[in-house]
Design goal:
This protein is of the alpha/beta class. The protein folds into 2 domains: 163 residues, Rossmann fold, CATH 3.40.50.1000; 114 residues, 2-Layer Sandwich (Hypothetical Protein, Haloacid Dehalogenase-like Hydrolase, Chain: A, domain 2), CATH 3.30.1240.10. It contains 9 helices and 14 strands. The strands form 3 sheets. It has a 6-stranded mixed sheet, sandwiched between helices. A 5-stranded parallel sheet has the order 2-1-12-13-14. Strands 3-4-5 form a 3-stranded antiparallel sheet, covered by helices on one side. Helix 1 packs parallel to helix 9.
């Protein structure tokens, strides 16, 4: 298959039937509270053209609701919680909780170090059709959380509160380094891996690790999703920006990195487009929809 990035139409026989997209730093730029109106419109164009769309994100539905302005159709299908949840048309078809005993040991480790914090999501059902959850921050203060959000650009979850890890099913957890610099993150990860062999620690942003069951990632969830949709890997396009996207980039035929992506994500991606802040993903989604599933990359979506 020949591919020439500088042409609008990529030479490929076949059609895109599913578009998956990371959220933070890809569809939703860091520092913004929600995706752009153009991105939501592009998602609807895909769906109107008979092309499925879904987020492939470390976030849960409780975060996606405000990100998409309450439009639940934008995340009814997708890979959530870094592959630990898979939804198809609003139905949860796969879920992989974290090891609670190991998670509590990780919390104790964080409590012993003032620069570490643990974030866990405890779903609480729905309210007026909106997914809800207790988002618990352990080992930190509200002032530290606000400063961290300003410094890193990460969107903090609605309904968050300070507390401890409860005796409950937990699917999503994150480890935050609250220090001023990301420089120690490599050494911190090495120690975490040694102390907590039950988990992988994947870095979606400079000072944050997603906590995953060892050997689990977004790509793990791809097979059950495609089986339910009746779609092949060659019919999938995926957009990402960071380390937790690399495994999935390697499993689909058409992987894209935005220009603000990490070095490891840019190296893993087959195609490269412009910055997340420039609606580059939306531009490509519009082109795919308007071409009826043919893979097209508009000139204005290419890196500047």
């Amino acid at each position: 298959m020949r591919r020439r990035m500088r042409r609008q139409r990529v030479e490929w026989i076949g059609m895109i039937k599913l578009v998956l997209c990371d959220m933070d730093g890809t569809l939703k730029p860091f520092g913004r509270d929600r995706v752009s109106e153009r991105s939501v419109s592009a998602i609807h164009e895909l769906r109107d053209a008979g092309i499925q769309f879904g987020p492939a994100t470390g976030r849960e539905a409780v975060d996606l609701y405000p990100f998409f302005g309450g439009d639940g159709s934008c995340f009814a299908t997708g890979i959530l919680a870094n592959g630990k949840q898979v939804y198809v048309d609003g139905e949860l078809v796969l879920e992989r909780p974290l090891d609670l005993a190991a998670l509590k040991r990780l919390e104790a480790y964080c409590l012993d170090n003032p620069d570490f914090a643990l974030i866990v999501y405890v779903p609480t059902g729905e309210k007026c059709g909106r997914p809800t959850a207790d988002v618990i921050l352990s080992g930190t203060t509200e002032r530290e959380v606000e400063a961290y959000a300003r410094r890193t650009g990460l969107t903090t979850s609605e309904g968050r509160r300070l507390g401890r890890v409860p005796d409950a099913k937990i699917v999503t957890a994150g480890f935050a380094y609250m220090g001023e610099s990301a420089e120690p993150m490599g050494a911190i990860r090495n120690e975490l891996r040694e102390r907590f062999p039950e988990f992988d620690f994947v870095r979606p942003s400079p000072q944050f690790f997603d906590v995953l069951p060892r050997g689990w990632n977004k790509a793990t969830a791809l097979v059950p999703l495609l089986e339910r949709l009746g779609i092949t890997r060659d019919e999938v396009a995926f957009f990402g920006d960071s380390e937790n996207d690399v495994a999935l980039m390697g499993e689909v035929a058409h992987s894209f990195a935005v220009s603000n992506a990490s070095t490891v994500a840019r190296s893993a991606a087959r195609y490269h487009i412009g910055d997340a802040a420039d609606d580059s993903v939306a531009k490509v989604m519009e082109a795919i929809a308007r071409a009826g599933g043919a893979l097209e990359i508009p000139e204005d979506a290419l890196p500047r």
